[in-house]
Amino acid sequence: MTTGVPQGYVLEPLLYTIYVSPIGRLIANHGVEYHQYADDIQIFTRMTVPFATAFDSLQGCVESLQ
Length: 66
Prior knowledge:
The protein has 66 residues and is α+β, with helices and mostly antiparallel strands.
């Protein structure tokens, strides 16, 4: 791994928050909802007929995150 936050470091909580904060903005740009807890992020969206738009939003979000 080339980036990250060292464990056990005094500033770890602050540095981790700075490190992951762009993820929330990136997800919001795709119109997808998310829930973040510690080092886990769940993305979700409301499904309405037709489902293609919801799937496209989720797929675009996942591709951007990668």
